[in-house]
Amino acid sequence: MCTAITYKTADAYFGRTLDIECSYGEEVIVTPRGFDFSFRHAKGEGSHYAIIGMGTVRDGYPLYYEAANECGLGVAGLNFPTNACYFSLQEGKENVAPFELIPCLLGRCKNVKEAREYLCCLHLCNTPFSENLPLSPLHWMVADKDACLVVESLADGLHVYENPVGVLTNNPPFSYHVTHLCDYMTLSKEPPVAHLGKNFLTPYSRGMGAMGLPGDLSSASRFVRAAFVRENAVCECDEAASVSQFFHILGAVEQVRGCVRLEDGRQELTAYTSCINLDRGIYYYTTYDNRAISAVDLHKCDLDGGALYRFSLQTEQRITWQN
Asked: Mean of the per-residue pLDDT values for the chain?
């Protein structure tokens, strides 16, 4: 399970938590403009926009979980089991395998407007990466500094939703999450105003305007909690404050080891949290066992090259001693 958000101060930020029970060898990966993606069905291009994000590399190919390109467009794929539906190849459409959607969008689209136009001709086909890596059931959030979309391939076809909330989690489909927010329209950062017992009742604690905010770890509750915290979060507009606040927002939905037990006995946890400055191409992250923020700058790599840049995650806790 995962949560993705957008956030804007002086710059635009995009990122997510990856909630999972095991590691698949995640790395920060930079794909320069000259790397050959060799798409299975879609038309390849000799050059594309440079990309930075988190993923794994299999057979020399970057399988991105979330990423952004040099133009400021970001895409994140989140788990969407039982609802995601992919189809056989279709003539007259741009057939794209699910594992190719992030590089397809980021390689050729510089903003949400172009991504929206490209999605109109796109067909998500049921081509797996390999026999050992079957299809992953996903839906995606696409964002730039001005707009945000959700992309879901359901049994009745591809759906592209405008996302004014700037949040995405997992099941149910996005349309449910937006409707579900209506149940929490009265939540407020302000102290509550008494209607019952208004002549003699007073709040006994700060924060009671948010009474009813769901605290469980389900995807529906995390969507509401992330939406409430994101909408009310404020900070200074400098980079350090903005990045810090972004991690605090996603901290409201992170998974602690031991709180979600799976049927096979394994424990789900927030393996990493990411924050991408879409304007500057900087990828920030923390991991479960290392709360210190690490960063990789897209523009410090040779973006005209053809070879991947791979950065191993800093997973050991770094502590600053003061005596």
From this structure: 95
